[in-house]
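Page 37, top half.
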Amino acid sequence: MTDQFRTVAVIGAGTIGLSWTALFAAHGLTVRVSDPRPDLAEATAEALAVFGPHLAAQGLDTDGLTDRVHLAADITEAVRDADVVQENGPERVEFKKELFARLVREAPGHALLLSSSSAIPSSVFTTEIEDAGRILIGHPFNPPHLLPLVEVAPGEHTTAEAVRCAVAFYTSVGRTPVVERQEVPGFVGNRLQNALNRQAVHLVQQGVITPEDLATVTHSLGIRYATVGPFLGGGPSGYRHIAEHIGSTMQQLDLGEPSQDPQDRERVIRAVEKAYAATPYADLAEARDRAQLAVLSTLADVRRNQKEN
């Protein structure tokens, strides 16, 4: 393994792959992108044009951003001299089995092999790979060029050195890596997100609230979790008060489960679409990203002031 990260191969140029590409290039890395999509050149150019201002707003030098991104003819060319490979392919076990077996053969022996998989632990797709010590999950949250978290989840055969290098790599590109000590499907972030989403769907299905009214989250939990996470609260006694007093009461609640009946599911889908139909997706995404940048900038200022004082 090496601590000197110069060249990154991005395998898969969907939403996540293109976001990674922009981030890596903005940190001065040479990026080689591989994807069979016929519009790869156009999609990459558009992503760099859209994401460039986001990266500049974070204080990164985006001059010459496109010069550091190269479109590879195939996977072999993309990984030829890579120090890191970031895979962003379909969430299919067989696909990842074949791809990572190929990456082990064709990438340099020192290259770190990372997957953006959002649900599949690496042990599931490395069972037949002998040299799996440098393979692990580096799961971001969308879009990774903005949201700092990367869940670093080693597999059964991942070496401690590979974990250390993954943490060093993601830190070097301004991310906040969190090492997960056990493999669980969906990892931690998506499991928490899924739990909240399931309850939100259930409440909408029961007629308790509408999708529009779920500003409940953005005006309360979202703000709290962005600043202190889920465990700080409960007044002067802190989490002890929550666990010993509020916790037992909450445990008695029947949270229910969202119905998977096609008609019930369709009603929720249509309600959500109605809530956001007036605004095109591209505009929603741009507004989301501007707001997330503002939150990140403000949090950075607050934490900097706390350290100085």
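Page 37, bottom half:
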Amino acid sequence: MREALFVKQNTEKWKRFDEIQSANPDELADRFTEITNDLAYSKTFYPNSKTTAYLNGLASKLHYSLYKNKKEKSNRFLYFWQSELPLLFFEHKKQIIYALAFFLVSCAIGAISAKYDDTFIRLILGDGYVNMTNDNISKGDPFGVYKQENPFLMFIRIGANNIYVSLYTFVLGVIFSFGSITSLFRNGVMLGSFQYFFFSKGLGLQSVLVIWIHGTLEISAIVLAGAAGLVLGNSMLFPKTYTRKASILKGAKDGLKIVLGLIPIFIIAAFFESFITRHTEMPMWLSGFILTASATFIIWYVFIYPIQINKKTLI
């Protein structure tokens, strides 16, 4: 059967299953069985099509609705990070990859611009920060900026700021994804020029071992917030089989859940930056262990674990 005919024969059923939220457990189970059958057929004959991607997301959504009805309310909080958020990462993995690509390209632009334009770093980071860091370098304490503030007040300030930046980046996605891309670009250029600044001073490895203690989680979460903005923006641009209104509502809901799910990561990153990063004299193996563990967690939770969870929903 051609894909167009397959979609035409089933579109109304899929829309009905997707739009009607309330259903008893038996009805949900029947819907889930039908959708997984359609998904299996689509994966067999149209493995890389948008239809297969859509059905995969719908199957995950129905599985969540079915499973939620079996959960006690006390487990709802745990279930969000254990299953619901990873399934959202899986459903919107393309947006995550696009956001990461935009960000890495922006970092490269920032680093290259800083290399070939002596004034670029001051333009991006500001004269005050550059002068202060140069003074700290001359004093033999290049990362002294992390030691100047009371750690608890620093924790509150940085945590609140990072959560604000993530929400801001997400909301900008309403400008047809362009706003979130712009925010990713701005943060990427800043990071690229910032990192190049330390490499140009011969402090590249040391800067990585100090700054990325907290930066691994912080930057990863900002990229994911950008991906949430792309989810919102793309829901406006590409409604697929949804009505545009239903698509926007779903995109806004999914994107907001992703951003809210990042809050614990931002809190941990702020804790690291306020209480751990200031200990610039810590052994290389310890700082390396922290940033490696953070990177491993992000890769596992955002890319590997969601695949495992998604496979379980289809068994």
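Margin note: Residues 93-313 form one domain.
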